[in-house]
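Teaching note: in complex prediction, the entire set of molecules is handled at once rather than each chain in isolation. The prompt given to students was simply: 'Predict the structure of this complex.' The entities are:
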Amino acid sequence: MLNHDCPRPAGKHVQLMATCLCDAFYDDAARATVEILEYLGCAVEFPEGQTCCGQPAFNGGDWAASRKVVRHTVKTFAGDAPVVVPSGSCAAMMFHGAILEFEKEPDLDQVKALGHRTWELGDFIVNGLGVKTWPGRYDAKIAFHRSCHSRGTDSGAAVTGLLGSIAGLTVVPFGEGEQCCGFGGTFSVAFPHVSTSMGELKLDHIRAVQPDLLVSLDMSCMMHLGGLAEKEGRPIKTQHFAQVLRDSLKNTGLI
Amino acid sequence: MKFQQIDQFAAGLRKETQAAVYDGSKKGYDARTKTLFDHFEDPNRLRRVAGEIKQHVVENLDTYLPQVEAKLKANGVTVHWAATAEAANQAVLAIMRARGAKKMVKAKTMVSEETELGHFLEKEGIECVETDLGEFIIQIDGDHPSHIVKPIIHKNRREIATSFEKHGLGAYNDDPQTITRRARAHLRNKYLEADVALTGANFISAESGRLVLVTNEGNSRFCLAATKCHIAMVGIEKILPCDRDFALLLNLLARSGTGQQLTVYTEFITGPKSAAQPDGPEEMHVVFVDNGRTDVLASDCRDILRCIRCGACLNVCPVYRQASGHAYRSVYPGPVGAVLSPLLAGKKFPELADLPKASSLCGACNEVCPVNIPIPDLLLRLRNKGKLEKSEAAAAATPPMGGWAVMATQPAAWKFAMMGGKIIDHLPVKLVPVPVFKAWTGSRTLPGWKGGEFRKWMKSRPPAAPNVSRGGPSGPALPEKTP
Amino acid sequence: MNTDREAILSRVRSALAPLPQRAQRPDWEAELVHMRTMRGDVDAWTLFRERLKLVNGLPLEGAAALVDWLDQNGWRHGYCDPELWPRLQAAFPATFTVEAVFDRTRVDDYQFGITRAAGAVAETGSLILTDASTSRRLAALTPWVHIAVVSRGQIHLDLQHAMTALADDPNIVFCTGPSKTADVEGILIEGVHGPGQQVALLLE
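The expected output is the structure of the full assembly:
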């Protein structure tokens, strides 16, 4: 369902969509994204006018409000450089969700054009830049949560491939990996009981394999699982995979 | 903010019931995964092709329906059409009255749940006995099924044993084999005394007019061996183009639903019994039922009509597993129900418009669907429809997005909010006036506020080197992985 | 009822009218449903026997084997299709009562029913019953034990082949093992409304 059906531009001049979550809460994940892209020789442009991909309103059913924000995003990311985003769900919003809500709109083509240039970060590194292994060192046992918006895309395989290639790093599988963490955007606050139950189930599975770190390609999942764990008084360390890649380089003085 | 009904239902569900639903669903999912991937190189390709076949049928029903009707008539079947639930029930009643029939045995069919046929016939003085074990138990309990394939997934053996005792089926005994044997003995007489058999149909071929019935218990066979009249209630969307397509769909159906290669009985029925056969119906009727399906066909969610009622989406759905089928307040629960039920409700759509909200949009349903229905996309469309029709049920506990949209289209305002948001780090959570934050912090902490930090850092960096452009140098050589 | 027909068909037509084009019907090759677990190295009966056992059915060869098995289980009163009886009669001792008539007023008298299969499917372990080959539908279904008599030449290799060779018969049933349910707590119980024992008897 979320598979790209068109070739996407790659290249070393990229525009960064940092995501509203990183803007508000996870500045280091966005920083790490820039650092690893620059390490790979990319020139990273950050269009200052960016705000949000429009997903919250889209998911909530307020497509009119969402379209306003998508139009602003289209304007902000003018050009034809690849747009790289450290989030599976925001990327999917651009290349799938936005196109859905603009089905009957006159500017559908412009929205499609932006969607067709948009890459989730891991997918971009592996399939856009052709980088399949990652240098440096990171000594840890990691549980990788393959967030739901990477279902059907190449992102999950890309990121697990990169993480698995890092010296010192072990990625351990855990039970019921196909089950959602329970975030789901506004679902997490409109269905708090179900959302929390889903998160607790996933935390049980993760804790059973005793990882040093929980990693994902979406900070939204980490915010939900991390927040649940902390409230319980049993916090777990969560990171975006970009931070792991960046730290792997730092650990061996490569940056 | 009022709460969402399905969340409240889930919160109030007995732990025992929730555990039964979770375990039953997970078993079904695991069994499906194993048989599909053990047996086929590329199960996803089977699903995609099957999806294309069903979508083709849905989009060509104007051709296929008359074609199937002609075939059925040529096979000696009487064809009826029912635009509404009421019309369907009346059609069945008319057939029975014409025969002076007083007793019906029925196999499991979800269409009859939609029309509440059983209750209707009972009011008309006709005995209507459910013969599928799960549906039989539902019937004696006055309950409703909570799963489209495993109707009593929410019940345990103790509850069933108690019901059996209450209804004169023997002293309390919760051994599953004893329960099953008792039902066998009780229902044998019912089949043999009944006048009319009612079934549904899983598929109907436009090429031959064959109906396909897929069961495990032998109840539909018994219905059609013991009685003299067969009535099949069939949704107008159940058509397949040709008999050969049965091979693809039958290879997917049982595996998707229960992990079986095939269910025990796959019946291909073309018409009343052959002349030389002593047992079976001498008369056969098909009642084509609309009951809102043409509304679905006219909507932008018509893809849901591909559904072959396997139940795989229910089994994998994390929300279904937490809430159980009854939370959906309609005949069809789970992901398929979240799309189908509000649409079949027609003008009453706003009352069920919260069903499409009860999802984190994880996409697991689409991944297991044997006909590849893009359920999350359909849920999103219905959320938009719910908003446009101002459904209160859908709006419950959903933060309004108008103010956010204003901020998110005005970068200066957005950046200001990013800086100002720091205040939530310092206010006691109880005083934060935004309901969304309240709903979040009930069970989760919020990360520390870092609004504006990344932008500051990005701005403070030296500008990109002038020779770095699209197609520029490939960056530092990446060393070999150090052991 | 005609008005309902017109109402439905006209609603179908107007629902589909706005579509710019209609979804095409895909072609699909037989290999699509080819099972990884299919074996090319054995004959159809051997494969069928294997698959039948996987679904808890019982393959038997020859009348003597059948009588032994029935006798061991204490099942000595049943029904047999009169057309089949001449081929089986010699194997049945006097301790057995095998009726040529199936009386539905005393269904519980028959512990077993022997009828002819019209075919079988090796890949799935299914027996194919039809109105033409089954002397009495009730006899194949109500006794605890159903024995379907089949010959080698009747066995289709796989489901796909069987679907392209469906007989011109109003009632075709693919029986894949004994009847069962898992409605009570997901626990598998065999013998619900149909037979609790499904036998395929090879008789040439």
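Point out the following to students. The radius of gyration of chain C is 21 Å. Residues 29 and 160 of chain C are 10 Å apart (CA to CA).
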